Amino acid sequence: MQPIETHPSRTEQVYRAILDEICDGTLAPGTHLVQEELAARLGVSRQPVQQAMQLLRSDALVQELGARGLYVAPLDAGSMNQHYEIRAALDELAARRAAERVHASAAAARNIAAAGEAIMQAGHAAIAAGDLRAMIRQDIQFHEFLYGASGNPLLVDTARPHWRYLQRVMAEVLRFAEPGSAVWQQHRAILDAVLAGDADEAAARARSHVREAAGRLARASRRGGTISGAP
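Below the sequence we write its predicted structure tokens.
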């Protein structure tokens, strides 16, 4: 039996490349996605592009419009709010459990503090570089750190499908609704409450962070029309 390869497959690389371009606006909503053109531009065969498209469709990032083919899907306000609702509950639980672990164990407190501070530094470096893709990756890293710090491994697996969709939403937040510096100020507030071992405060800050992001994006969409179905 051959060892399982752990590096990203060609399909995963293509998925990531297309998702990055959707997130940073290179592939805007409504863009027609021609698989032959994508394969040529990415230097791959059509097969990984086809497989990546199936994944993107399942994550509601690409839609098929009958015989016209595949297009970048518009952001939908209803779907966005549903994902945010679930994310708020998961982040609140993760922050609460992480703070409880800090309160209960000095060793856990040291480990969580070291990991959290490293992620904070990486996040601020991405902001300083003005790199939107890096900002999105570091934002996800912060929340995955929070799930891991909770001590409940199921939180990471439960949240992962929502984050595939929310990466794109996060790009809209950073481009139109809320500057990266404000996002990381809120991350700092969550981390400080966790490291203080204050479970109620950590949970409240995590919940507020998610709800504020959803609210600001909804307001930005009403001004700029970036999301379909926005009230």
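Residues 10-73 form a domain with the Arc Repressor Mutant, subunit A fold (CATH 1.10.10.10).
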